[in-house]
From TrEMBL:
InterPro entries: DH_E1, PDH_E1_Alpha_Subunit, THDP-binding. This is Pyruvate dehydrogenase. Residues 21-312 form the Dehydrogenase E1 component domain. GO terms for molecular function: pyruvate dehydrogenase (acetyl-transferring) activity. It comes from the Bacteria. It comes from Stenotrophobium rhamnosiphilum.
Amino acid sequence: MNKSFTPATLLEIYRKGRLINLIDERFRGLLRSGRLAAVYYSPRGQEILAAAMGVHLQQTDYLVTTYRGIHDQLAKGIPLRPLFAEYYAKATGACKGKGGPMHITHPETGVMVTTGIVGSGLPIANGLAWASQLKKDGRVTLVTFGDGASNIGAFHEALNMASLWKLPVIFLCQNNLYGESSKYAKCTAVDNVAERAAGYNMPGVTVNGNDPEAMWRASGEAVARARAGEGPTLLEAKTFRFMGHYFGDPGAYIPKEEYDAHLARDPMPIARAAVLSSGAATEAELAAYDDEVNAKIDDALQFAADSPFPDVSEIDIDVYGAAA
Ligand SMILES: Cc1ncc(C[n+]2csc(CCOP(=O)(O)OP(=O)(O)O)c2C)c(N)n1
Ligand SMILES: [Mg+2]
């Protein structure tokens, strides 16, 4: 892919990243104050990689993500109202209030699966990609997962099958250097997850996921390969999570110097400064964008608050199968 990385593309990535960033900040505030009671795995620090991948995807493409998936879902284009209503377990939620944050699904925007079972998304993504290959519908499937997931058996099985069958799938490992409280280097035999691609005869690419241009290029190539029927790519985006594993995790297992070194390279302020110096937007335009996003957040929160809970008569519908 020889396309040049323009200031307009940088701005598009920044705007997607900022949407994620503002929603994440709002959710953490609501959780802290007790106005939202939900499990929450903050994507703080991983916004840019999701945004830079997201700009290459079409609405009809598929996404399979994890519990730490709100950045992926937003980058894919999920609307805020059904997303927020699902966090509040309301009937108007993406899963009618029965899935919750761990199971966000919104087929209209290609958000097919969100799973809390580490590593389980990869074989499911193969299934979606296989269906697209058989139907020749031109869709690609993006599956995202963490560094910890790359040590699960299903990761290896899925890579082998996807390569063998040249499935239109992109395996995006978001290597945030920790799986719960376990440091990557303590549990993984290779320096880079992408090295494992060699064992499955597919391209493996390690990239700084916090660098908009590098992530945009690597994502674009992986999506183009899948779209052209040339098969899967294992893309490893190096990143860091600033808010611990789950909401409320103090992250005491991360040495302070390590944390501070990452914080000094926080991708959001760096991307913002890059947008301003590129001339793609002014301070005033970025502030206006924040206002616009905050108004959408207010609207979706009000929608969620005003919506009813699912009726108790629906308790066994849409769960395992239709009730008689
Ligand atoms: C099969 C399985 N084993 C263990 C767990 C418990 N668990 C939940 S998240 C997690 C860490 C996964 O780390 P990683 O894949 O790096 O993703 P991250 O949370 O860093 O995004 C673990 C072990 C689980 N949910 N599923
Ligand atoms: Mg991790």
